[in-house]
Design brief:
Elements lengths: L1 E8 L5 E9 L6 E5 L3 H20 L3 E5 L16 H14 L4 E5 L12 E4 L4 H18 L6 H11 L1 E3 L2 E3 L1 H8 L8 E3 L1 H4 L14 H16 L1
Parallel strand pairs: 3-4, 3-5, 5-6, 6-9
Antiparallel strand pairs: 1-2, 2-4, 7-8
Helix pairs in contact: 1-7, 4-5
Amino acid sequence: MTPSSWPCPLPGGGIRDEMALTFDAGRPVRLLIVPALFDEGNRMRRFTVEVMRRLDARGIDSFLPDLPGCNESLQRLELQDPADWLDATAAAARHYAATHALGLRGGCLFTPARLPAIHYAPVKAAAILRQMVRARILASREAGRTESREHLAEAALARGIVLAGYRLGADFYRHFEAMAPAGGAKLVAQEQVGGAGLWLRAEPDENADQASALAAIVAQEIAA
């Protein structure tokens, strides 16, 4: 596994280098992985890397780029728009000469359209936002404050919002909420991997059996 950088397009023009984790031996099959989003991405980061290790053992190169405003990115998350993330994953795919894409959970919303894609446990953006809003309401209640979904939605659309520690701009919230994974991808349900999804856990975790199962399914789908 090697850290790498790739040229990410900026909304107003120009580029800025972003980081990626890569297993790159110059092999014919080159898989771009679009990670799960926000807290789910944190909970599944180790799992994602373990899947990459197993794909490497199966002769598949893989690339896990940071989305602008996330992880090691120096860009401000509140200035991003979903279109920027779509441009970013397309640019990462070109830079790494990806032949296929794997989306994990919310990452399925941003797999490049030109690549054959595999979607693991895909989820609509509205469902992601509902969970994040619910977590904020519960945290506010514990702190003695009362907030409602309706009030938070209005505030988010007017001036942006902080959910689970992530500062989302109004444009991001507005455009993201309506997004759903594109059709045509090969779907991998959690039942095929076994056990409960790691995104449901309270803390980041890993599961060797699930990582092995997903890597095997992905390799089989690519070879099909």
